Amino acid sequence: MKIKTIFFDIGGVLLDIHPDRTVAHIAQVMEMPTEDVLNLFPMDAHHRYEKGEVNDEEFYLEVCKSLPKGKHLPEDAFWSAWQKLVGKETGVSEILDELKKKYPVWLLSNTNSRHIVNGVGNSFPFFQHVDGAIYSYEVGSRKPEADIFETALKLANTTAEQSLFIDDNQENIEQAKKMGFQTILFTSVSEMINEEIIQEILNA
């Protein structure tokens, strides 16, 4: 079926992400091995943070609770580390602009208010050039949960069969496929450009 809407993931597709930089900064402040910080990081709290179930302060406190007794992580140091996760814009944004000339383009991202409102939201042009965005923390669901995909389709007024979803996470891609989306597992800008469906859209 003909594509009518394109959904892009942000982190790992439109923006480089560097969780290693976040972990390294916390490890340096805490004088701990990076491996220990990584192993202790409360991923369940992170997922709840991305679903908007905990706020900034509650997430910070969850991270603090995960650390060894006697270790104190200053709040400003934590948020400084948190912002280091986001890197530079990738070359995909240029392709996004070309695709947008053909079809509506939306963002579909697992993210948090700190990164969008206080971080990257106004830093990169593509945020202002898309037709809309579905952020996990705003809709209470995160990929690969079906709810966030259903919300995306409703907000974009489209169907899965008429949608292309581009993401760098295999699990998210598999869920989208189950729901009927056409998909591209992002590995590099060059490989994405060479995908048959992208070439068809660009040359239409």
Account of the 3D structure:
- It is a single chain.
- This protein is an alpha/beta fold and 204 residues long.
- It folds into two domains: 5-16 and 88-202, HAD superfamily/HAD-like (Rossmann fold), CATH 3.40.50.1000; 19-84, Putative phosphatase, domain 2 (DNA polymerase, domain 1), CATH 1.10.150.240.
- It has 13 helices and seven strands.
- The longest helix has 12 residues, at 19-30.
List the helices and strands and how they pair.
Elements lengths: L4 E4 L6 E3 L1 H12 L3 H7 L2 H8 L5 H11 L8 H9 L2 E4 L2 H9 L4 E5 L3 H5 L8 H4 L2 E4 H4 L6 H11 L6 E5 L2 H9 L3 E4 L3 H5 L2 H7 L2
Parallel strand pairs: 1-4, 1-6, 4-5, 6-7
Antiparallel strand pairs: 2-3
Helix pairs in contact: 1-2, 1-5
